[in-house]
Design a protein that fits this description.
114 residues, mainly beta, seven-stranded mixed β-sheet, globular, PilZ domain-containing protein
Length: 114
């Protein structure tokens, strides 16, 4: 199985918070993953709401991710967080998919094959 992982800058997050309850995964999102640094410790299995600013779109997109890994790096850097995108704001799905594909192909995305 192949996973597409894109590193995003957490400074582009307008908001990040834990969600209580469970969010149903969007059917079209298949193995789309992001990773980022965070001074906050997020636990594996948590669902996070992220309001993510896309400079090229001059707009923000609301995402929900499921935390798949969380590793402490250092007090200065904080934690390295990785998660699967399970929900994207309905009206902005095409903007997010375009951003994700462009970032993956042009600026540092990579594939992890299992």
């Amino acid at each position: 199985m192949s996973r597409s992982i894109v590193r995003v800058n957490s400074e582009d997050f307008l908001k990040i918070s834990s969600i209580k309850g469970t969010v149903k995964k969007d059917d079209y999102l298949f193995n789309i993953n992001i990773c980022f640094n965070s001074l906050t410790e997020w636990r594996i299995g948590q669902e996070l709401f992220i309001d993510y600013f896309l400079a090229e779109a001059l707009d923000s997109i609301e995402l929900v991710i499921l935390v798949l890994w969380s590793e402490f790096i250092s007090p200065k850097v904080g934690y390295f967080i990785g998660g699967e995108v399970i929900k994207v704001q309905d009206i902005k799905k095409s903007i997010f998919m375009t951003h994700f594909v462009n970032k993956h192909l042009n600026r540092g995305g990579y594939n992890e094959t299992k």
